[in-house]
Automatic annotation (TrEMBL):
Region described as Disordered: spans on this chain: 28-51
Keywords: Guanine-nucleotide releasing factor
A GO CC annotation given for this chain: cytosol
An MF annotation (GO) of this entry: guanyl-nucleotide exchange factor activity
Name of the protein this chain belongs to: UDENN domain-containing protein
Transferase keyword on record: no
Domain UDENN: 63-425
Gene name of the record: dennd2db
InterPro entries: cDENN_dom, dDENN_dom, DENN_C, DENN_domain_containing_2, Tripartite_DENN, uDENN_dom
Amino acid sequence: MSREAFEGNSSTLGKLGSLFSNLQKLQRGRTEKTPALPPSSSLASAGPRSHDPGHLSGQFFFEYLVVVGLKRKAEAGSYEPQITYQFPKRDSLAKFQKEEEEKSLKAIALFCFPEGVNWAPLTEYPSETFSFVLTEVDGSRRNGYCRRLLPSGRGARPPEAYCIISRLACFGLFSKIFDEVEKRRQKSMAMIYPFMQSLREAPVPAPGNTVKITSFIPESGTEIISLTRPVDSRLEHVDFRALFRCLGDEEVLEVFAATVLERRIIFIADELSTLSQVLHAVAALLYPFAWQHTFISIVPTVLIDVVMAPTPYLLGITSRMRDSITDTSDVSGRQVTIATSCCLCCAGELNKVVSEAFLSFFVKTVGHFTGHVRRRGGSQTAIFHKEKFCKAAEPKANRPFVTLFSKTQMFDIFIQHVERNPHQEGFFHKKIAAYQKAEKTKGGWARGRVV
């Protein structure tokens, strides 16, 4: 990524730099059981347009499970992704519903094999798990979880993909579900149905809770599978380890700066799992704000022209598609490769430290917005005074950044929600209140010492 792309915002990058003094302490103490959380520093959906976990109440764990195979075409070495299995099968749909479902299923097949139609039969293929997002006409988003593997059989053959579509954003949980699906697939496709039926009938657990699925496997007997959602629902679709394996500290800061200012950003990697994990991690750095523009964690070959769009985007491109990108004059580009060193700390520890640090940045730079939201008379809505908000940013060196950020779509959407629901105070508001209280206490203590 080029620093020149952020000319005029170097002071912002400088302020962000102190973040990593805390992260580096974590790296040095990775063997410790409980690394300390970073103190507030001068520094800073999940996915994009994050969802409220409460909306899942009463809904199914998932909408579809499909198996996507590669069907050989007339051209040599050319294959076409095709759905070979679908659960549940919905036959009683109206015509327009059936047409919409067919469109969705075609898109799902496309995202399961985004590299294109040219494949060579294989005798070995390590399974890989990745995710993507399907955006509906109304702006709502569904998550696609995909595991590709080599089907059972002899001789060279193309891989197949198992894909689960769900409103629930929780990568780790669905990875465990895939482990169970894969275990049953090795015995028989018929073994998958009763397990997925039990899962579909199970209630979606609240964050921090567990649901138990009872399943029978011949020769193994009855098994009880426990599926637990993380306590912090903000981070259940995110694993920051991939981001910090692929990019250095300074590069992560540059990516964050580009994302906050809504630039056009392309990531390139060899592995699909790397692309999906890194892009979802980058989007999660924006919390409590959410990326509002084009977000495609893995761009299929047939959609490669999206890189020419003039509007902001976050895109993931496989290395084999890199030559298809002809104009990168206005794009921040970097080839993403996994470093040889391993991240020894667990995902939960790193996720907590990273999210707290970046959240601290937003608390300190724009948290004063709460003082510039005014109720409208007896109305339940409010109005935000942007100009006063920008002028009130402290220290003064922050004001150019705050002014730029106030013009982004992510900030605008966030403020619109605040204006419509001024009485709602979530996690971000609590962090702001705690910070402001600490600052007042610190200021009072300092004045007392002077007196």
